[in-house]
Write a structure and sequence with these properties.
- Helix 1 packs across helix 3, helix 3 runs antiparallel to helix 5 and helix 5 runs antiparallel to helix 6.
- The protein has one domain.
- It has a two-stranded antiparallel ribbon.
- It is mostly helical.
- About 75% of the residues lie in helices and about 5% in strands.
- The chain is built from nine helices and four strands; from the N terminus they run αβαβββααααααα.
């Protein structure tokens, strides 16, 4: 059994690692979220044509959905071992860094472009005329809307996720990891999927409410499927943490996190 000081060091490293994984994937998702991609084209399959809200929709989603599942899985693991306080700390810190990134990118798009940079990049890879500064500003300023939407949706989603997770843990007595992790994610993502798109593409873009609802529905359907499919990842993570901290220490840490979460509720 590791000494108290060794356990504390391992616990601190685990928290830093999980926070780094959480923060990195959240920031990446913010930056790449401006791109809308086709899942069917990526997989080489026919369009899904799902009947939703009186029309047939394909799986066209924000590229940010690639990284957000990692954020929510990491959030559940942090909640499991460090409680609501741990999740709130990294959530507020991440929201602050997203806001900082918003300011940095906005400042960058306002800088005057160098003449030679415009000249050497006056054509795209297909030989079409291109204004690279205009393209840069259009992409990243649209991304700013996503960032603002994500800050709001992210904080709402995290508060809901950690609250539902802790409530389910209290109701199940610490059993059924898959239920509290998947259940909390499905509930929080229901809000997140629509809030971020509404702010980013309706308030700051030119989408209609119908398009927001349609794409939000597809995004939520995707996130729900991913939440279910990635459930085994949670058990693998728990196994690795048990090996790293020692099973007894890991259980003690989880019990302390649960007790602190119940007290805070």
């Amino acid at each position: 059994m590791p000494s108290s000081s060794t356990f504390e060091q391992k616990k601190q490293f685990l928290f830093l690692f999980l926070c780094g994984l959480f923060l990195t994937n959240a920031l990446i998702a913010e930056i790449i979220g401006v791109k809308i991609f086709s899942v069917e084209s990526f997989l080489g399959t026919n369009p899904a044509q799902l009947p939703i809200f009186g029309t047939k929709l394909d799986f066209n989603m924000s590229a940010g959905v690639v990284n957000w599942p990692i954020v929510f899985i990491t959030s559940d693991i942090i909640n499991e071992y460090f409680g609501k306080k741990g999740v709130r700390r990294i959530s507020y810190l991440t929201a602050g860094f997203i806001a900082y990134m918003y300011i940095a990118i906005y400042s960058t798009t306002s800088l005057p472009p160098a003449k030679f940079w415009l000249e050497v990049n006056n054509q795209d890879s297909y030989g079409n005329a291109m204004n690279i500064d205009g393209a840069f500003n259009q992409i990243f300023r649209q991304g700013l809307g996503i960032m603002l939407g994500s800050i709001v949706a992210f904080l709402i989603g995290q508060v809901l996720d950690v609250t539902v997770f802790s409530w389910l843990r209290r109701r199940t007595g610490g059993k059924y990891i898959w239920l509290r992790a998947t259940g909390s994610t499905l509930f929080s993502q229901l809000v997140d999927s629509f809030v971020v798109i509404f702010i980013a593409f309706y308030l700051f873009g030119n989408w209609s409410v119908t398009q927001v609802v349609q794409v939000g529905s597809i995004n939520y359907l995707y996130k729900g499927c991913v939440a279910l499919l990635t459930t085994p990842v949670l058990y693998v993570a728990h196994y690795l943490i048990n090996q790293y901290l020692g099973k007894e220490n890991a259980h003690q840490l989880a019990n302390e996190a649960a007790a602190s979460s119940f007290t805070a509720m």
